[in-house]
Amino acid sequence: AISGFAILIWSLFYQYQINENYLNISLSEKEAKQKALQYFSSRGWDISGYIYSSSYGDNDKNYTTEILANKDKEIIKNIDQLAGSQRWFLRWYNPPNKEEFIIAYTKEGELTFFNHILPDTLSGDSLPEDIAINIAKMFLKDMTGSDWKEEDWELKQTDAEQKPNRLDYYLQWENNKHNFDDSKIRMSIRVHGNEVVRYNRWLEESHQLKVKWSKWITISSFIGDISDFIFFISMLLAILISLFYFKISTNWQTATKYTITIFIIFLIGSILEIPTQIIGFSSKTPLLSSIIFQLINQILNHLFRCFFLLVMFAAFEKLYRKHFPNHLSF
User: Fold this and answer.
1) Fewest beta carbons less than 10 Å away: which of 4, 47, 152, 193?
2) Which tens digits make up the pLDDT trace of 245-272?
């Protein structure tokens, strides 16, 4: 029964595995960092002394791309390239200062995301809307490296926000050349004063896809609830057997030995993951404090998990000796 259920789940999800285009990376992390440093230099920004971190990831859902492309590899590649889906995320920040730089390049080397985070109180210009739009267009033509052509894009959204010492704009364009079953490629620009501080490119899903994705989330949540319930029942049975089944003594020494081994493995894994987690640390907190807090949080989580592993090992070892008294114990 369990094997049959596993095959059923596999049949539903195997077609949405990571496509090979995701793994074909022509731009290395070192090359992406060098491009970012050249970009910062061209805009006169000094990031010396800033903390650097990076990660590689997918900005869009593989599920969405697979559905739109009907698993056609060439269409998948085209969508990913237009939307800048696979990208290197690079971050420079200097806590506790709020200013930081986040930039992303596609695996082909195109700028696909940029965010220069500034304090809201920083002074700047209050430009008319048409001038802000022209500043954004100049940025798209000269700085993205994507061969941007104005006639291929339609301005869909223009929002202005008054800050204490400047006027900010949010602008969004939609590509009018590519239509993937009503899903479109979009770009957005944020202009703070007279400076472009944020740029992004992505695949805007159609309403039908969003509804389908919402249904999958609901199903996933339901399966997660069932999994949590099974886990709770299993833990309850393990605690009852290990603590209150007196016909066979509980071998806590063996259970503790295995639990400590697994805890050490968990802890080593958490320490090794810290360099990849720095990219998500808050710019308001010093790096050392963020690392310590992260480790304490991970240790507490591992202790909680290992408590349940301890009682499970104790219960399984006791049941093993009950059903196989003539075999070697753990």
Assistant:
1) 4
2) 767 777 888 889 989 999 999 999 999 9
Q: In angstroms, how far is CA 284 from the centroid of its own chain?
A: 21
Measured over the CA atoms of residue 325, residue 327, residue 329 and residue 330, the dihedral's sign is negative
Single out the residue of 77, 55, 57 nearest to residue 68, CA to CA. Answer: 77
Contacts of 183 (CB under 8 A, 6+ apart): 64, 68, 203, 204, 205, 206, 209
The model carries a pTM of 0.75
- Residue 316 burial (10 A CB sphere; 0-12, 13-18, 19+): middle
* CB atoms closer than 10 angstroms to residue 107: 23
Query: Cα dihedral sign for 66, 71, 73, 78?
Result: negative
Here the tokens at position 76 are 């998948």
Q: Characterize 183-219 residue by residue with b for buried, 16 or more Cβ atoms within 10 angstroms of its Cβ, and e for exposed.
A: bbbbbbbbbbbebbbbbbbbbbbbeebeeeeeeeeee
Q: Is the peptide bond before 96 cis (omega within 30 degrees of 0)?
A: yes
Q: What is the DSSP string of 256-277?
A: HHHHHHHHHHHHHHHHHHHHHH
| 306 sits in which H/E element | helix 287-323
Instruction: Assign 285 to helix, strand or coil.
Output: coil
